Amino acid sequence: QVQLVDSGGVLVQAGGSLSLSCVASGVLSCSYATRWYRQAPGKEREFVAVIRWSSGSTNYPDSVKGRFTISRDKNTVYLQMNSLKPEDTAVYYCNLRMTGGINYWGKGTLVTVSS
């Protein structure tokens, strides 16, 4: 069994920075990739970043590229968010996908960016 705990969401002013954490526990030997998603009120869940455990390769959508950085230190994945905008306001979720295709989710952490 795998558990994810995502945290770090707070209220921050536009232009500010914030770092989110996703701590994974349990049997992690088949971990493939960790993704961050976000969901704003009334909108669909949106992919934000991915890091692959074996290679360390990362990808971002254009909406956050150059502002967000995903990284991993052992069983913790971080999302460093810089130059935050009001439109970054959302609940952020981390997701861990295993090599067998099973997905695990954190409960989400709220990021609010004030203008």
Any overview of this molecule?
It contains no helices and eleven strands. The chain is mainly β. The strands form two sheets. Strands 2, 4, 5, 6, 9, 10 and 11 form a seven-stranded mixed β-sheet that branches. Strands 1-3-8-7 form a four-stranded antiparallel β-sheet, with no helix packed on it. It starts with a strand and ends with a strand. The mean pLDDT is 96.
Distance between the termini: 41 Å
What is the percent of helical residues? under 10%
Query: Radius of gyration, Cα only, in angstroms?
Result: 13 Å
Order of helices and strands, N to C? EEEEEEEEEEE
Shape: globular
Number of strands: 11
Could you tell me the strand content as a percent range? over 45%
Which consecutive residue ranges, at least 5 long each, have pLDDT under 50?
none
What's the rounded overall pLDDT mean? 96
Structural class: mainly beta
User: Main sheet, how many strands, which sense, barrel?
Assistant: 7 strands, mixed
Q: Helix count, per DSSP?
A: 0
